[in-house]
Fold:
Amino acid sequence: MSDMLSQIERLLPSEIEKRSFEIIGEELNKRGIVLDKVNESVIKRAIHTSADFDYAMTLKFSNEAVKKAIELIKEGADIVTDTNMALAGINKKTLEKYGGCVHCFMADEEIANKAKENGVTRAYVSMQKASKIGKPVIFAIGNAPTALVSLYEMYRDNVFRPDFVIGVPVGFVNVEISKELIMSTDIPYIVNVGRKGGSNIAAAICNAILYQI
Structure:
């Protein structure tokens, strides 16, 4: 047991994240993976959050996606997410410096009632509400593929065009196709193809962008 304890890295709390990113860099080098410099911080933070190196291969970015997201935040964009977990994880203080705030409408009573009336999910309806915020919005979807479907259908029907979509819902039902729908549009996006994702990944991507400003 004492031999195991000798392997523990004794780090200050402020040093742990830095060391984690060093390890991520070392692991990527061992795997022969070279990341695009523009997207590197987003990918590494997704890996840091999940300890899953698949994100180095599965995170997809539209043209100049990170640059466009940064521009939106500087213009005061809000962030809308589909879970309170992502809401809690996004760095709100940094976003507020630029005039933005984070919303999650999933627990709103009006959303629940409308979803029940129409036989759809709360995530589907909450995107419709978010479309009426009246300012630039970055959508950070980590749980509900129906949120992406709602955004796509509003775009298709020329009702609303999202400014930016982070599409990383996790799961098995409609997850992969909902991501493909977003990538088939001209909406700026960061999407993780396949089944993996989650609210923690959505928040991590938001924070990676915020920390670059």
Summary: Residues 145 and 177 are 9 Å apart (CA to CA).
